[in-house]
Every structure is written in C-alpha cells, then in structure tokens.
Amino acid sequence: MSPETQQRSATILIIDDEPVQIRAIVAELNALGFETLIARDGADGLRKAERGLPDLILLDIRMPGWDGYETCRRLKADATTRAIPVIFLTALCDTAEKLQGFEAGCVDYITKPFDHREVLARVSAHLQQRHLFARMAEQVEPPGELQATPAGREHAHPRDADQPGLRLVYRAIDILLDEMADPPSLTELAHCVGTNQVRLGREFQTHLGMSTFEYLREQRLVRAQELLTTTDRPIQQIADAIGFKRPGDFATAFRHRFGMTPREYRKGHG
C-alpha cells in the first residue's frame, strides 16, 4: 500500500477475544477501504494503539484479563492514545453498564449481535466528528485531472472508480452539517449538489450504507452527544441547535441511540 493510500484511509483497531464474531465486520470494513488492526486482549490492544495510532477503536467489554472498561481507562490515561474515540462492542444493554462505559471514556456502544449497517453508521459518524471524511473529501481529485496525478495516485482511494458519486456525497455532507438545524429537503439538497434525489439517495447507500435522512439523524445525535459532554447549554437549546424542535422527540431519539436520556448521559460525564 502506498503512503498516499495510507494518508487517505482511516485505521480502525478492533480489540475482541472472539475473532469469529468480528470476522464479518473486519471484511466489510476492509472492503470499504478502512485499514484494520486486531488485538485479542486489552494489553495487546493498548500496545497496538500506542504503536499504530488508529483513528478509532472498537472494544469488546467482556474479555479475559483487563475487561473493556479497564482497557478504555488505560487508553484514556495514556497521552498517546487518549484522543482516539472508543466504541464499545457489547451484549450488555443495561443503562448502568452503559453509564459505566461512558465514565470510562467511550463515545458510543454497538450491541451484539451486530447489524453491519449500524456498525458502519456509527463508525462513519465518529470518524466524521474527527474530520477524517472531510480531509479525505478535500483530497479527491477534481474531474478530468486523474491522468495528471503522480504515478500510483489513481489507486489511492478505494472508491476511485466511483469518484463522481463520492463527490456528490461529500458535497451533500457539507450542506447537511452546515445546515443541521434546518436542512434542505432531499429534492433541494440534490439540486444544490447537481443531481436528482434518486441518485443522491443511491450514492449515500453505496458509500455510507444509509439514507440521507439516516445520516443526518446520526450526525445530529453525535453532535448532541458532544455538546452534552463539552458544554453546559440547556438540553432544549441543544435540541434546537441540532434540529429537534420538540424536547420529547430529542429525548426519544437520543435514548433509542445511546440507551439513556440526554440528562442521564450528561450526568455520566459530570
């Protein structure tokens, strides 16, 4: 793999002692162009995180030796790895267990058995928060310039064959993130990026594995998660800022996504 490919790819470290369960996830992430690192226990995971500096970590909770909570605490205590977002992989769904995970430093949960669309959606959302997708978008060559790029550059992105569609997705993402509180309709959004709503919806499904609405909802809730953690803004104000006009709708969506209310989540990060 060339250095330019590495620059464009996100690396995901998976720490799980049951490789059979994660084989399909690894295959899917690799097929989408992500680099993956595998560790079988917490100590090995910490070593690989320190050496490989992945962009995101998927971490099982129930493991021999250090469990996921202890592993996460150690990752967050290490200056080298503390900024890497950690998503827990777990069969646990109890609110108290989730609060324990957020207190340890995780940013999200994915519940076993895995829905691969959910894995992709949550991984994509948290990588977006780290601006990796935006950085990758800036490096996509404009149409017609591929032949002028350095040798090997034409293979630098795993979806180069579909770059026109990928560019549409990135343009739409920029608009959705800028206008999260009051986004355009799908028809208006498609017009803004120079296509029609059928094609735009198809490109989102192809490249992100979700509809434009699902992507926007995911980004709204991840943004809410960040605001609840880093600010003391009232919850209704946060709901308004991300596009939920009714507090009940926001609380319901947040609970469905994170397994607890916004108030409970904020308390766990207090």
Automatic annotation (TrEMBL):
Species in which this protein is naturally found: Thiocapsa marina 5811
GO MF term set: DNA-binding transcription factor activity; phosphorelay response regulator activity; transcription cis-regulatory region binding
InterPro entries reported in the protein's UniProt record: CheY-like_superfamily, Homeodomain-like_sf, HTH_AraC, HTH_AraC-typ_CS, Sig_transdc_resp-reg_receiver, Tscrpt_reg_AraC-type_HTH, WalR-like
Keyword Transcription assigned: yes
Basic and acidic residues composition-biased segments: 152-161
Source domain of life: Bacteria
Domain HTH araC/xylS-type residue range list: 170-268
Record carries keyword RNA-binding: no
Protein's UniProt name: Two component transcriptional regulator, AraC family
Keyword terms of this UniProt record: DNA-binding, Phosphoprotein, Transcription, Transcription regulation, Two-component regulatory system
GO cellular component: cytosol; protein-DNA complex
Domain Response regulatory: start-end pairs: 11-127
In-chain residues carrying the UniProt-annotated modification 4-aspartylphosphate: 60
Entries under SUPFAM superfamilies matching the protein: CheY-like, Homeodomain-like
Region (Disordered): 140-161
